Amino acid sequence: MSATVPAASRFRWAPFAAGLLVLVLAYYFSVKRRISNDEADVPDGAYLALRQALLELDNATRFDRNTLQWTALERKANAYLHKLRLHEGAALEAVSRFPPALRFPDAKSVIEGTRLFDAIRRMPKGGSLHYHLEALVDQKWLVAAAANESNCHVSFEAETYRTFANPPTASVKLPRFKFTSQSLPSTEWVTCRSARERHPGGPAAFDLYAESVNSVIPNAYATEDIAWARFGMVFNMLGDLLHYQPLFERYIAQALQTFYDDGVTYLEVRISKWPNYDEHGRVVAFSEVLDSVKRIVDAFRTTHPDFIDLRFIYQDVRFNTPEGIQASLDTVISLRKSHPLQIVGFDLVGHEKATPLIDLVPLLTAGTRAAKHAKVTLDYFLHAGETLHAGPAPPDANLVDALLLGTRRIGHGFSLSKHAGLMSKVIASDIAVEVAVISNQMLGLVGDIRRHPVIDMMLHGVQVVLASDDPSVFGYEGVSYDFYQVYMAFEALDLGSLKKLAMNGIAYSALGGAESKARAMGGFERRWAEWVQELAAH
Ligand SMILES: *[C@@H]1O[C@H](CO)[C@@H](O)[C@H](O)[C@H]1NC(C)=O
Ligand SMILES: *[C@@H]1O[C@H](CO)[C@@H](O)[C@H](O)[C@H]1NC(C)=O
Ligand SMILES: [Zn+2]
Q: What range(s) does the Adenosine deaminase domain occupy (predicted)?
């Protein structure tokens, strides 16, 4: 019979029969092994125990260890956030719109379209501790509010600014603002009303122009130096607007509302010496300005009783002269006496390359001594290591000097994760690092936020607080986008991590005494419990 079967057909049967035999044998042996011992195709129990131990060892250093009790509600809330991150993250990644991978101006509207962002917007953020006064509130609001003042005047100056680059200077035409009912030289100044009307494209185009010169959004900068130069210029102009006391007061109220709506109930903001002028052209001294802020915060608290406070860290620019910095230290010491609850410490800001901390050590240690002599405490909250560079020179080396100078927190500390020894020191000294991932991206330190060293710090055990540094200059408000980007970028983070980040904003704040911190933490816990309940209901 077989002789009648065509050759081609016999040829096909052979591999089929062989394959079948292999499958049957494999099945037979696998069943046999499974019956005779339990280590068929999974690692054995001993291996799994070692594996678990190693995972636990890895976890043991985490910054958020044991933050949660993991109640049933917390588990459900965590699962909901986790599910959103997984599904929305994958869907956006599939169309090349994964938010942490995008430059923030492109990521913003993508983030706003997600349910994860809805959830994170409503999250209570506790305290947020790294801001600069000029950049707290939406530019659109500020420009509209300024133009709306009937005595608003504007002039346009070509401004030259230093770029530290080659060629070393660049030039741009900037609007300068002045608020006065007196007449100004009409060759230079026009009222904001007529400037807006005469602007090519009309008032709306003027507003857009004013907003855009106030921001660093349109450009990606080639170097840290260029970004810094552009950045400094923006602040000059914002200062013009905010030195008009009536506008300043509305701005502070607007900032409180903005951050409160974003879930922040305590704020620390860097402020430089800030005299204002009023509608009569009178100088409003800095101490009066502080008093006005206190009145605005008090009024805000009567309508928002769970808002804790807005406090200031007094700052000078690090490129000031030694005499200038000396004078600032004298000022902050006297402010610590006159406004101890509002002025909580001192910092130096601006491109860290300008003056390394090592050059300022004698001044700053003398400042500490002078404060002691004046019977006040003077804490430093120093920007340090806000750089891509790692090496013996500043800005990276500023981390070393900031630690030796006894800084209470580190501003940015972007380069810290490269130094295991310094990280250990930071952990042992219980110093928190103020991290602003979007700011770092906008100033060119990082592209994809998944490469941001904040995750290294957090998993290593460095306590981190999140902030947005200069949100209005980057085209946004609040700190929810930063929380979103960090949570979306790093799957190692969970609900406990978010809670720890928010709590750190209170724990590492300058709120005085255990009692006021405990009160702030109590208020936070109540809001947190509500949020968890809301998430768990999904
Ligand atoms: C490590 O920590 C993460 C985040 O809290 C948690 O999900 C995970 O179960 C932990 N793993 C171990 C082995 O403890
Ligand atoms: C503009 O001024 C009017 C009248 O003072 C006020 O009602 C309005 O809220 C102001 N608008 C803005 C954007 O400041
Ligand atoms: Zn800063």
A: 207-516
- Residue 149 domain-assigned? yes
Assess whether 105 and 161 both reside in one domain. no
The torsion of the CA quartet 357, 170, 161, 467, rounded to 10 degrees, works out to: -60
146 Cα–ligand 2 center, Å: 10
Does some domain include residue 426? no
Report which of 495, 537, 503 is spatially closest to residue 523, judged by C-alpha positions: 503
Question: What is the three-state SS of 63-111?
Answer: CCCCCCCCCHHHHHHHHHHHHHHHHHHHHHHHCCCCHHHCCHHHHHHHH
User: Which structural domain range is residue 97 located in?
Assistant: 72-118
125-142 tens-digit pLDDT: 999 999 999 999 998 899
Higher pLDDT, 44 or 28: 44
In the chain, the amino acid numbered 416 is L
Same domain, 32 and 91: no
Could you tell me if the CB of 496 is within 6 A of ligand 1? yes
Taking only the tens place, the pLDDT of each residue in 412-447 is 999 999 999 999 999 999 999 999 999 999 988 999
User: 344 in helix, strand or coil?
Assistant: strand
Asked whether 253 lines ligand 2 (CB < 6 A), one says: no
State the DSSP code for 333.
Answer: H
* Dist. CA 464–CA 150, nearest whole Å: 44
Same domain, 45 and 77: no
Residues less than 5 Å from ion ligand 3, measured at CB: 469
